[in-house]
Amino acid sequence: xxxxxxxxxxxxxxxxxxxxxxxxxxxxxxxxxxxxxxxxxxxxxxxxxxxxxxxxxxxxxxxxxxxxxxxxxxxxxxxxxxxxxxxxxxxxxxxxxxxxxxxxxxxxxxxxxxxxxxxxxxxxxxxxxxxxxxxxxxxxxxxxxxxxxxxxxxxxxxxxxxxxxxxxxxxxxxxxxxxxxxxxxxxxxxxxxxxxxxxxxxxxxxxxxxxxxxxxxxxxxxxxxxxxxxxxxxxxxxxxxxxxxxxxxxxxxxxxxxxxxxxxxxxxxxxxxxxxxxxxxxxxxxxxxxxxxxxxxxxxxxxxxxxxxxxxxxxxxxxxxxxxxxxxxxxxxxxxxxxxxxxxxxxxxxxxxxxxxxxxxxxxxxxxxxxxxxxxxxxxxxxxxxxxxxxx
Length: 392
Description:
Layout: E1 16-20, E2 23-26, E3 31-34, H1 37-40, H2 49-59, H3 72-84, E4 89-93, H4 96-113, E5 121-125, H5 134-140, H6 143-146, E6 156-159, H7 164-170, E7 175-180, E8 183-184, E9 190-191, H8 194-207, E10 210-214, E11 238-241, E12 252-256, H9 277-290, H10 295-316, E13 321-327, E14 330-335, H11 339-348, E15 351-352, E16 354-356, E17 360-363, H12 371-391
Parallel strand pairs: 3-15, 5-6, 5-7, 7-10, 10-11
Antiparallel strand pairs: 1-2, 2-3, 4-12, 8-9, 11-12, 13-14, 14-17, 16-17
Helix pairs in contact: 2-9, 3-9, 10-12
């Protein structure tokens, strides 16, 4: 008999009832160090006082109107994102997948609006993950995502991640854009080489394409800059964001230049819940913290400390870990034994992590994580690794 909750997840048998900073507490009162962050979502940790106060204040006033009227918090958040990014305009949605697919529509609409409707296909890369809508799984083409959901949505041509020659060869008169995650999350915490990102900008300009970055997971401060592409010193034409944007409240966004978004006029796109007053209170509160002087510098500093310790962990335990990967506070460990087994051991020892492709254990602590908490996580990782070495 099917469960009341549709069984689309192989759920871990633990239930959390409260959180505090970088920690979660289950219904038995046990404390866990949270280096999963709800898959890079709880960017300010749990119970952050500024985020709590902002939501409490807004929830007592107004939750929802709709986008047929002006929403003050939405205008404020959009203006702040425009002021601090490459973008000239922002559309708010409810989720990353919705934002990503809206960005695909924006790319197609741009060329149709400018008299080139034949340009509608996007080049994507292997190992990508853009969500679980029919278009998003067609873009990623990963077997576990697409199996049983065919026929696939047309319009996506995949090339190898990091391979510029293959990408250039895939460009046709129908190509409208290139879509890449600067740091792949589900694909195994694979960070794009910065020269590769710069070359993507050059290729897009050369062929008159739109460059579309998916920063759903790697954006909103996760790498030590507001958006990961900033490390390469280049800008996209379109970007989608979500996950950490609301600190746990569902928010997604499409950011775009004015020229890229020239076709997105009244009636071109819409959402019922996206950008409502409650979501915008959360988004503005998170941005308040991210934009505090020195906050992102501290994320970068702590990320580098964690990175160095992970590199040493790998060197000291070669039978357990092959490699450390990632950027900022979006890091991963390539495991030797099945990653799922190690994650179980880590959870039993009090550290929460999340898996990814290529047998990777993702480490996604909240952006407010401290050196002390990093040391605690490394201690747990070391204990588990040494136990595994002893059993080997």
